[in-house]
Amino acid sequence: MAPRTKTPQPPAPHAADSHDLIRVHGARENNLKDVSIELPKRRLTVFTGVSGSGKSSLVFATIAAESQRLINETYPAFVQGFMPSQARPDVDVLDGLTTAIIVDQQRMGSDPRSTVGTATDANAMLRILFSRLGKPHIGPPGAFAFNVPSVTASGAITVERGNKKAVKATFSRTGGMCPRCEGRGSVSDIDLTQLYDDSKSIAEGAFTIPGWKSDSWWTVRIYAESGFLDPNKPIAKFTKREMQDFLYKEPTKVKVEGSTLTFEGLIPKIQKSFLSKDREAMQPHIREFVDRAVTFATCPECEGTRLTEGARSSKIKKISIADACSMEIRDLAEWVRGLKEPSVAPLLEALQQTLDSFVEIGLGYLALDRPSGTLSGGEAQRVKMIRHLGSSLTDVTYVFDEPTIGLHPHDIQRMNDLLLRLRDKGNTVLVVEHKPEAIAIADHVVDLGPGAGTAGGTVCFEGTLEGLRASDTVTGRHLDDRAVLKDEVRKPTGALEIRGATAHNLQDVDVDIPLGVLTVITGVAGSGKSSLVHGSIPAGENVISVDQSPIKGSRRSNPATYTGLLEPIRKAFAKANGVKPALFSANSEGACPTCNGAGVIFTDLGVMASVSSPCEDCEGKRFQPSVLDYHLGGRDISEVLAMSVTEAEEFFGSGEAALPAAHKILDRLADVGLGYLSLGQPLTTLSGGERQRLKLATHMGDKGGVYVLDEPTTGLHLADVEQLLGLLDRLVESGKSVIVIEHHQAVMAHADWIIDLGPGAGHDGGKIVFEGTPADLVADRSTLTGEHLAEYVGE
Question: Is the dihedral of CA 666, 667, 671, 673 positive or negative?
Fold first, then answer.
């Protein structure tokens, strides 16, 4: 009889395999209300919910922030001193975290010397390649870098070794920076006719610079009494010497009425006082002056390449580094593939991998010399993904913030494949997303809400996509929403003519953009939409452009200060109480002296995160106690700033506090769907979608006839898109022309006229492939956009 075999018992699960969840308990960051949630590891989890519901607070400000903080703590205190210090998020328990890599949609630095190549290490590898293989050989990698100037020095140095003795030494370093434009590729020229009227003398008020009155200290006083110029002589009659001193003199101390002041030439003074400042942060009249007075032209010495003649003369197979950087990346990848040189094989392999990643992620149409500040939010996010695509790391948490931004429906499938590839390598992928096509690939869905701001911050649903669809949450109800084509479209009242447009990749485009209607410009990413609109529509007084550039503002800025709403409110408080308006500003005389109007006290702890605690004197209200004794309509200034837009709209709409100027601004904020924001909420706590709409609300008061909007659905939930369409309709019905660059099919279906660019990206694009109504585009189906729109509306 055969011996009976025992069925082997399965081994007991290993303790290490029990950590398959990221556990969050009691998260209270920003508007989160004690959120507790468990997220599966090595899966793709998508976070949905209306804009401002708390998605970024949970994913970025809690999970990713704590992971990064814990990693930073593993470095020595010396190294931590050079890192941004972060406080622990406001959460009770965070368990099961893995290393987080954040790929957000923050625009890349707009430094004029930052390019796609410098931001991704591709330039660094190219420089080494040319320094090894370039003929003639001109020097080390720095000789090909437009950020490195050439330096020569000579003199005596003292060597302290045994007997001290002076030794003559010379030093030189070959850099690649063009000396004329200092590596910027363009030179700025100041139009002197915009600075002064040369038929007048300084005493007669020759200056036409904003704020330079003829009786102010730095004009008449310093220029007139410096002794270098004759203040009563018309500027046109200055001698050569006087003109040189007037325009270019180095800072020189002069005595004026017993005081020592600094006299400086007009041009360096203008460069310091106006041109060194961020253009977006300037007041409108100053910005207009700068736009008039300063002209930018391609550098004549380097022809815009940013490089010295030496760097441009060294070539590999008849291609210089300037030629390589100006090629489209997909063409450059082919050129690099053709280089067979065993001595630099590892370098060629790494460079090839980086360039292929660009092509794979759909950015093959970019060139390495493209300034990084000109990339759209979606392009910047994908450029940041490049370095992670070929990574061998596993069990990492990748955190993405709306990776489908700026992507045509045709490109979304490619992005989905990349996210799934990262997950399949054994990584946890967390994605904040609004697009149904991207939500569809989730293994796990977390829906936050139910509303935005204080009405959000709770988990409304957690589970599968099918479960979300069946749930009665805002996202569940709108997931299968499909816009319908209009029965009839509006008739244009005129046309904006664009002739021979050649900016970037546009191929001599002629097009008439209809006015008085809603026009949507669409096409795959890189087809030339932004080049056509921003590069060809003259930005005159009649055109208001609301682009994706980030809002500038510190934690002291809030919706009330940013929109100009605080100005009429302060004046109303001052008038009602018979005091100065400056008392009602937390950045001026009314500020609490203990916290300087910040509402919190920061304690800097060196390498540790600085600790913030509410100010005990003003209890976080930011104002002096005496200021809070003044009331308007029964409320003090801190109570007004704590109101939501909706409450404030009612408060300033009627009764004792009726204030038409404030009410008009509040109406616009409510119009763009920001009724839930509080007036004093710091700008730094707003989500990307909220900032874009805040900017739109600010510009709605401008007196322009043509509105140009760049992807206004960025960061908007499906439910918010309906409200946006209503707003666009109201703008058109009030007599405005609205031109929208957009990929969202709901906006396309709602348009009166569509202009589709393509057929591809980069040099495969730049042509108009369709013009007409959405219904014609769907019926035609001759373009990628037509196919996707037809599928979307179910035709």
Answer: positive
The 3-state DSSP class for residue 701 equals coil
- DSSP classification of residue 95: E
| Contact of 744 with 712, CB cutoff 8 Å | no
Give 695's Cβ-side CA count (13 Å radius): 25
Evaluate whether 214 touches 203 at the Cβ level (below 8 Å).
Answer: yes
Residues whose CB is less than 8 angstroms from the CB of residue 49 and which lie 6 or more positions away in sequence, other chains included: 55, 447, 448, 449, 456, 460, 474, 475, 717
Per-position DSSP letters for 35-77, written without gaps between them: EEEEEETTSEEEEE-STTSSHHHHIIIIIIHHHHHHHHTTS-H
The model's pLDDT over 13-67, given as tens digits with 9 standing for 90+, comes to 888 888 899 999 999 998 999 999 999 999 999 999 998 899 999 999 999 999 9
State the pTM of this model.
0.83
Question: Cα(648)–Cα(645) distance, rounded to whole angstroms?
Answer: 5
Which three-class secondary structure state does DSSP give residue 733?
Answer: helix
Give the mean model confidence (pLDDT) for residues 455-467.
Answer: 95
452 DSSP 8-state letter:
S
- State yes or no: pLDDT of 3 exceeds 70: no
Write out the two tokens for 358.
């660009």
Q: Identify whether the C-beta of residue 437 lies closer than 8 Å to the C-beta of residue 409.
A: yes
Which residues in 229-317 belong to E strands, given as ranges?
A: 252-256, 259-263, 294-298, 315-316
Written as six digits, the tokens of 553 are: 């503002």
Residue for token pair 């605080």: 566
Q: Is 740 exposed, middle or buried (0-12, 13-18, 19+ CB in 10 A)?
A: buried
| pLDDT single digits (tens) 697-725 | 888 877 778 999 988 888 888 888 888 99
Q: By the 8 A CB rule, do 517 and 753 touch?
A: yes
Radius of gyration, CA atoms only, the chain: 30
Token pair of 437 as six digits: 């096509």
Per-residue pLDDT at 5 exceeds 70: no
How many residues are recorded in the chain? Answer: 795
Alpha carbon distance, N-terminus to C-terminus of the chain: 73
371 cis-preceded (ω within 30 degrees of 0): no
What's the rounded Cα separation, in Å, for the pair 601 and 705? Answer: 46
Decide: 501 and 532 in contact? Cβ < 8 Å: yes
Q: What does the DSSP 8-state code read for residue 180?
A: T
3-state secondary structure 121-167: CHHHHHHHHHHHHCECCCCCHHHHCCCCCCEEEEEEEEECCCCCEEE
151 within 8 A of 143, measured Cβ to Cβ: no
Side-chain-side CA neighbours of residue 657 (13 Å): 20
The CA angle 129-132-138, to the nearest 5 degrees, is 110
Which secondary structure element, helix H or strand E, spans residue 769, and what is its range? strand 767-772
Surface-to-core class of residue 283, CB atoms within 10 Å of its CB (0-12 exposed, 13-18 middle, 19+ buried): exposed
H/E segment holding residue 380: helix 377-389
Q: Is the pLDDT of residue 280 over 70?
A: no
Two tokens, residue 14: 């290993």
- Find the angle CA(698)-CA(700)-CA(704) to the nearest 5 degrees: 120
CA–CA distance from 168 to each of 154, 155, 158, 163, 171 (Å)? Answer: 8, 6, 9, 16, 10
C-beta neighbour count of 703 within 10 angstroms: 7
Give residue 740's pLDDT band: very low, low, confident or very high (50, 70, 90): very high
Q: What does the DSSP 8-state code read for residue 273?
A: I
Phi first, then psi, for residue 402 (nearest 5°) are 45, 70
Distance between CA 659 and CA 582 in Å, rounded?
19
Nearest to 294 by CA among 188, 204, 415, 179: 188
CB 399, CB 64: distance < 8 Å? yes
Q: Is 510 left (phi over 0), alpha (psi -120 to 50) or beta?
A: beta
730 vs 271: CA distance, rounded Å: 42
Cβ-based neighbour number of residue 497 at 10 Å: 9
Longest dimension (CA), the chain: 127
